Amino acid sequence: MTHTDARAAVDLVLDQSVTLLATSGGAAVLPGPQVDAWSLPAEAKASLARYGLPGPRDDDLSRFLASFQSGRRPEVADGTEYYRLARFGVSRVCALPSGSVTAVPSSRDVHPQLEPLYPSGLLPSLVSTSVPQFVELAWRWGALVPILAEEQARVSVADDRAWREGRGADLPDPFDAYEDLCRYVLERLRRIDPQVDPASGFWADLLLDVW
């Protein structure tokens, strides 16, 4: 796949309907009847019931995977009530009663070398400002991540080859093309949720490394 092919594949995913993505992107996991008791906006419950969230996959790519809590009452972490919707790596992806969606790390601990970047440890990070927007983002991301992973791997191989052949300092950095693709993806995701920050936050960090 060339950079042009990757861009076209990204556009195809981002232009498809959520309905098509949810029916062709693997088995959707729907919440159980407990969702009716959750103190979430009506549109949040309707979106979860209609589309669900992506189920397990046979790869190690960074995806949102459905992990609906079974209880009717909210779970609590650091004094904050939330409803667990999914997992993302080691983080729980949770809806607050307001309807916004947050990634809650399983631990605040960070590697000593990363402490200057995270002086307060790992903290909850805003994923989306509403559940319906998160549902759309989760399905679109699930289809995007294989494309991004393949492009990241392609430019990594090209970069390694260039340096082994002694041409690394003379050629454009192959990773510039990947970073350009990531910026484009962030721009498109902001059309779904304007609060997606292209400079920092959950989505910017996520696009640094999709493996």
From TrEMBL:
InterPro entries referenced in this protein's UniProt entry, alphabetically: SUKH-4
Domain of life: Bacteria
Protein name per the record: SUKH-4 family immunity protein
Organism (species): Cellulomonas fengjieae
Lineage: Bacteria, Bacillati, Actinomycetota, Actinomycetes, Micrococcales
